[in-house]
Task: structure prediction
Amino acid sequence: MANGFTSSRGLAGTTLRINLTTGEIKRYPTDEKLMREWFGGRGAIAKILYDEVPRDADPLGPENLFIMSAGVMSGCFIPSGAKIEFGSVSPLTNGHGDSNMGGHLGPTLKFAGYDMVIMSGISPKPIYLFIDDDTVELRDASKYWGMGSLACEPAMKKDLGEDFEIATIGPAGENGIRFSCITHDFGRQAGRTGQGAVMGSKKLKAIAVRGTRGINVYNLNKLTEQVTAIIKRTQTHPNMAPWQKYGTAFFIEWSNDNAVIPTRNFQTTYYEDIKGISGEALVDRCLITHKACFGCWMNCGKYTKAVLPGKQTVYLEGPEYETGALCGSNLGMTDINQVAYLNWLMDNVGMDTMSGGGVVAFAMECFQRGLITTDDLEGHTLNWGSVEDTEHFVDMMVHRRGIGEYFSGGTKRAAEKIGRGSEKFAMQVKGQEMSGYDGRYAPGMLLSYMTCDIGAHHNRSWTITVDMAEGRDKVEGRAKVVVYLQHVRPLFDCWCICRLFWGELDIEPEEIVESLNHITGWNIDAAEAFKTSEKIWNLVRCHYLERNKANGRTFDYPPARSWEDKIPTGPSAGKGLTKEQIETMLDEYYACRGWDSDGNPSREVLHDLKLDFAADNIEKIGLLGKPLPNGIPAVRGERYKPKAF
Amino acid sequence: MIVYFRAGGQLRARLKPDVDHYTRKVEVDGEKTIAEILKDISVDSAYVALIHVDGKMTDLSFKPSNGQTITLQPPVSGG
Amino acid sequence: MQQVFKNVTEIKRIKVISGKCSGCRLCMQICAISHYGETNPKKASLKIEAHFPQPGVYKPKVCTQCGKCIEVCPEGAIYRRDDGAYIVLVEKCTNCGECIPACKPGVIFQHRGLEHVIICDNCFKCTELCNTGAITMVTRPVKVGK
Result:
């Protein structure tokens, strides 16, 4: 028994609450009702943040919480049951923020006996969280403070033991760079929403966990039977072998062929030098090992080395698709070794490679246009395709020197300082930089960015093949697909399993729910799962409105490049959306969700989702959605089946 | 000659497998590229992100031989 | 002329090709599940050594059936089965751990929830699930004395 609490039904049994200011550590039984009603992981995090973080709390201040949650499925015998979810109010977006990572930390936290750790306050000195089964301590981290993430992890493993799972921040997180990440297992990151900055603000350098317990589930025989069958079935799935060989980098060329790859800060969507940075180039020139997360044999991780003349050879995991695009074509790099080197650089300083690539690209375009000069860059240039320039600029940001200070807050804040029309090409929504797909000729993708709860991220919804199938010039009908995906995909972040395995190998949501039921005994169906996800979505929206105090629609627009600049080159030259089409997509989206035309949730839909308390709160600040003339739609979001022809 | 196409995920419905859950058998007249064969069987190659033959990546210009299996992979829904 | 023996049996063991291991630990999961009914890598009878950041490879360590554990066990609590597996006699094992330093690949384990050591018993569920071929079951016929 862990700390007196029994592991059962997928849960480890104990939740920790730690006050980092006082050092007090409390243990109590994991709230099973919270887990059931909010699904753990992202859902439980959303509820706790909503209930406990004051609306005017500084995300980098003591009142913000930093939560890690391993979810009900992580660590169980379930394919890709590897994830851990981190959450806090995001210093990038000023709303609910969550980000997850694979590797082994989530399962190990549960093997140690803990489902969730909730941290408040700020430590008076650098510490790391040490968990070794029953022992939970805040230990002095002064010898590690200042170390790069990829250097810190082996140092800690040497000190503590190879079987400790370690997650760290780098100097970027320590210095409050708002898009800092958390790194684990030599190359897995919780990249988005600046969770590393929140850790750094709390002087929390690292988390080290070892666990020797098991996890009990509701019906192990049925789970083992189902999972063994899924394992056998997916071993011969056509996607498996190519996936295992290339990881997600395999479709970099496809994105280019279909003109959605961000090129030089999304100035265009087709990159002439794609071959040099493709998945094939990665495997041929950099690959050492195919690397897996706990319980997953897709082995999508590619452990590689980057060899560049004049630079030390570096070892890293990646680049995967997003980094390949955002630090590759988006920065004008031509050689996969350059992209891999920058991947290592950002992983080591502890900077999200997606936002990092986006911020550097924005700065490069500012330099291109003369909005920043070599005087601003300590005598350096910031040219497309230059690793040296990028490395120097990253250093300026990490140490917040000169204009590095502006950019360390992300492209939105940088554009506010730079001005002179740069806001148009700060490729972000709500303060978080775009993922590696240009949405100008993929309207559903653009809508996905606009309406994602954590800014311009694809994790919640990705629709490029839908856009291709339904017609890229047409915007009508996208909203219901986006809404459906925004309910399905975050479920993986609640349950702490990997969307890539479960979503790409012809496994239906009903089968995943069946596994969930074998683990938890909850006996729910897919419809209930989607409804709970919708509930979480709406709560997060209300939280955002309460913190940012304006109509939701205000925050749901993409940067003006999205409608002002038609794509200049490549297969989609001349294409792009109009502002009217963007407004139409938003109108359709809000109608689909049961929100009013200002983008505010209506009382009817919040009542349907048992969120009356949230309705009362947004009503108090004048942001409750107006009553809907036709009532709420009966079904919000529609499962999309690709057309067969 | 006969070739086999295998696809899963988003491509499976488009392929219309007839041999097993993922595989379609196609009769090909003469020597043709993968692009040409896909056009003949009405599979839009725009949804094909990666082509694998005998464990090696290839492209739409590849001309398969009798009995070969061509694996078509759709893009991931975000990586 | 080759002598014919009366009895022939098969030795089975796990063969490792390290270069193929991706570190997924499915082998360790199914080992603990099938023997102890829980996901708990610390109750598995094999381990995966991770060598990172350099050279960046995983090395599965499995029982090589060398027999050193039997030699050092003071209680006679381990016996060698016909198929080559080294079986712990749970009722005799005192969990003294003498066998642990004798095991060269380091795959004899103790766990605080158990009163005996853990040694691979040749169930091969791990090799059935390994997707990369890093661990496979191999057999060889062995002639047994008349």
Notes: The mean pLDDT of chain B is 91. Strands of chain B lie at 2-7, 23-27, 50-53, 56-58, 69-73. The first strand of chain B starts at residue 2 and ends at 7. The CA atoms of residues 9 and 77 of chain B lie 10 Å apart.
